[in-house]
Amino acid sequence: MSSNKRLRLSDGASTSSSSIQSSFKYDVFLSFRGGDTRKNFVDHLYHALKDKGIYTYKDDEKIEQGKTIDNQLIQAIKDSRFFIIVFSHNYASSSWCLDELVEIMECQKTGQQTAYPVFYDVEPTHVRKQTGAFGKAFLENKNKDTAGKWIEALKGASNLVGRELHATANGHEAELIKKIVGEISLELRSINSGIDEELVGMETRVNDVVSSLKIGADEVRMIGIKGMGGAGKTTLARAVFKCLSNDDFEAKSFVKNVREVSNGSDGLKKLQEQVLSDVLNVQVTLHNVDDGKDMMKTRMSGKKVFLVLDDVDHIEQLKALAGGPKWFKPGSRILITTRDEQVLVAHRVNVIRDVVLLSKQEAISLFSRYAFGRENPLQGYEELSGNVVRYAAGLPLTLEVLGSFLCGKDKLEWVDAIDRLEKIPLKDTLEKLELSYISLEDDYKEIFLDIACILKGEDREGAIRILESCGFHARIGLKVLQQRSLITISKDNVLGMHDHIEEMGKHIVRRSHPDEPNKHSHLWKYQEIEDILANDTGTEETRCLKLDIWRGNSIVLMKGLAKMKKLRYLENYPFLHLPITFQANNLVVLEMEYSRRMVQLWEEGEKKVLKNLKFLSLSESNLKTFDFGMTPNLETLCLDNSYNLAKLCMPASCQKLNFLHISHSWLMTFDLGLTPNLETLSLEYCACFVELQVSVACPNLKILDLKSTRLRSLDLELFPNLENLDLKECLELVEMNAPVGCLKKLGYLNLSGCLRFTEFEFRGRSEPKDNCSSATLDLVGVSIDPCPLHSNSNLSKLRFRCSYKEYLSSSVGNIEKLISFGLCACTDLKKFSDIICSLQCLTKLSLKCNIPEFPKDLGQLECLKELCLSSTRIKHLPDGIWMLKHLKFLDLSGCALLKKLPEDLGRLECLQKLDIRSTGIMHLPQSIFGLKGLHLLCLDET
Question: How confident is residue 29, by pLDDT bands cut at 50, 70 and 90?
Answer without folding.
Answer: very high
